[in-house]
């Protein structure tokens, strides 16, 4: 028995007890020659220790340094100056004896919330970084989320069923990590990008409700905040329609809010079509914690109910930027009409950055005195400015920001600008949570680099029931041939849904194809030959011949879900041992060279270019 | 809404309700021309459907075949002939309308407990095999075990923390699966054989109590019932000694017994030293559901308290087999003195099989009439036989079986013979559970093929506290030089423990080394150079410099734990998608060839020999 209590446990009710504690030396404070206070830390909290040479000459705490691991025996004593900031703040331990269990060198950075260690150093010494309270609470939150999700899913009849990690490489989706097979020379396993086909097979097997919190792998070039291995809460249900799935999984997130953050999310979860999201927010995962929707003043692409997008208000005033633009989009930013020249110049610079890529930014100030001022005054009369502002729903005191250019880029820029202004105005609060379902995605989009249609979700997603006959009866090339916005999307809609939390996609899924004929049509539409479809997915096509039930599901990005709930946008902060942007674990120094013996056994060799 | 109720839900209290069910057609029974009974199956149970053309001429069930997926609407009706074998046996559904949701081809084998499908066929169509009740209950049991273990660990303060899958290849232990890194050409990740070093780092980080149910990977030639990927319940605790760990984890298994099998395991868990296990049972994972311990009549190796092993009773009678043997071991089999010549001949053949490898088997029958008869009567008087039988603890009516030969092989054969006799006598009951801790393992054993000492458990296992000075102060070669039994084991004992259930090792662990100096000594003892130790385990040695706490842990073999609790010895039956003995997934047909593009991107090529 190394301890009778943890460092977070003792209270004033324990005074006069003899206790044994063990933990890490957080701080050492000498009070004159004979008295030393030490804060002893473990996972559960901090307890103050009092070492006094007065008490015993052997109790010289001098050898104890930061991060030493010690065991002490002593008496719980009332503290003279209480510390209301910590639960053990009413007591301290008068130490009677101590043992150094392990020494510590001076850590390369301070084990404090605001550490002096840079990212690289903290990653190399991740085991010390993990001691910091700021990191520990993220790891604890991650566990709380998984525990809550598991409980909810269990109560709703889901079974955790494990699917294999050594599977088969598939031509669709992202790039696979592969694993050479020693027992089958020349052949390779692939690591799963998701358990998609397995969970569908489990539905064919009649397991009805499946879940798994599971690692997935994608060998993609790592953008910021992507990891080569990541975790999903992966779920699938049989005999369900879209509505059943939406209710089940918004229930899951609400339960997590309650269990983890003690938030009662009683609002109905908003729903929005993908088309509305693209037109009104400029992206498919809108942050709806704030308004400032995009007003389409003009668009080369028409849309029912978007008459304002014809450009009536702005065309023909001789302002070439608007006249020649494919698209003109306005955002009404509340309360910013008083922005100085310096502030508007800075915003103009912001949209001109390469990541945003606009040529410029047009302003209309809706002044509180009822006047309207603009950076394009010489082209538009005040009446015209007022008409534009009114159409954009701007209020007195708003600053109207307008971008123009090619459809796709402009829409993306407007979306970024909206998010940036939301951030600057403090409208994107980390502790406010707004869920949104985005629905009615296009089934296909066109991949220019591959010169073919690809599944926007994945090849197992069912079309909307009304679009199934179109898929079945038409040549896939014809069924996909319509173009939407600048980038080609199919007119055929997917029976798919994304869950968005505060502007982040935290989950996505679909009702699946469960009939062989339709699945074959889908593979053909993606340009897969019949032979290739059979080679790669023959087991799934086969399974659909033996009584596959209607089914659908959803996968949450577990890392991201935790990050957003934890009020962060960095998933790396919520992974115990993350990799860097080159896919390296700098603590382990992995990946690394392997031995010649390993190459020989695997019957492969390097072919460095 | 595809259904109002599941197929396992309706009872006589539901009579007259209008319901909608969906599921699979299990059986079709025609009763004359106009009436058809169908058993409709889903995960939750079976409900009988009554289709009658009398009721509606449209309700012709003729098109419905086995494994069709259908949805029906109808009225819950009282059954005339009730079926007490199923919970829904009091009712049936008078069908009013039905929809075929999906057809099914005739399955390649019957979806029944006693299927006509062979192993290969069932593996190829695993999604159909998983429908069988016999398999489904195994998968359900697996989930029940994981749920129970998670609850127990949660209540005891353990946190589920995920560790990475793409790590670094290590020279110790089994062969690694490796993963070429595209972003780091020429370098490879390894898949973890266990999260061992990560869980130790988490203890260094102060997480105090960690667990994970996690996949591990070993690229070993597959013996029966080994899988290249397997699951562990992996646990680690800080500030603990062996006793704390034993109590915590026998508590876990007892909780699983209670939750999953409703068994109150109130017996104290037996403990046995490795040496006792080897001497008295001939192996390190004794099945203690029955006695029949080995009696060592003679051994070339001495052991305190084993005076009978000197061979006094049997030597010098002129029976060369015993006189010349290194070891002679007897087993008293209760109630088998009446075995016929045919039966003893068959047993002799059994021990002569190559897997057992004995030259023969000697019998002494302890007849109920007080006489003793033996196959070696000409060498031993009846008095001598009686003396041997008495020394072996044989009772009247017992059959004494005696094997002799080289120490290691004979001991192993005696162990196998004991287990075989236990099985034949029905003493190894699948529904009886006996836990055992095996303790005090040797720290090292000698690997002849590698010509070096290897860690019997793993290189992170601490020696017994009393043996630590021996490790620190001696040259490792000297510290390891003693030989025990025929195979060399170190005299230094490990602070390690195995949990044994019904003769199967279900878990194992140890108190870990947590001081750099001792860890370096251990690596050196294993023949690792200082450079190699730093290259492969520098992160761990480094971590031990910054205040590593005393810690220890245990990992359960989750697949095996489930199998034993499920009354089976085959782990494959408890894995949803297992691989065969060549490491192949015959359903997916994996591993498989990959594209040239993949080779090019990974900068590797085949080097087939």
Which regions of chain A contain 5 or more consecutive residues with pLDDT less than 50?
none
Mean pLDDT of chain A: 92
Determine the CATH topology of the largest domain in chain A. Answer: BirA Bifunctional Protein, domain 2
Helix percentage of chain A: 25-40%
Instruction: Compute the CA-based radius of gyration of chain A.
Output: 30 Å
Q: State the separation between the terminal residues of chain A, measured CA to CA.
A: 58 Å
CATH superfamily of the largest domain in chain A: Bira Bifunctional Protein, Domain 2
Largest sheet of chain A: 8 strands, mixed
> For the record, what CATH class of the largest domain in chain A applies?
Alpha Beta
Largest chain-chain contact? Answer: A-B, 127 and 127 residues
State the total count of DSSP E strands of chain A. Answer: 23
Number of domains of chain A: 4
The structural class of chain A is: alpha+beta
Outline type of chain A: globular
Count of alpha/pi helices of chain A: 16
CATH-level-2 architecture of the largest domain in chain A: 2-Layer Sandwich
The percentage of residues in β strands of chain A lies in 15-25%
Name the assembly state. Answer: homodimer
The side-by-side strand order for the widest beta sheet of chain A comes to 6-9-10-22-21-20-17-11
Main location (chains A, B): cytoplasm
Pfam family, one (chains A, B): tRNA-synt_2
EC number (chains A, B): 6.1.1.12
Subcellular location (chains A, B): Cytoplasm
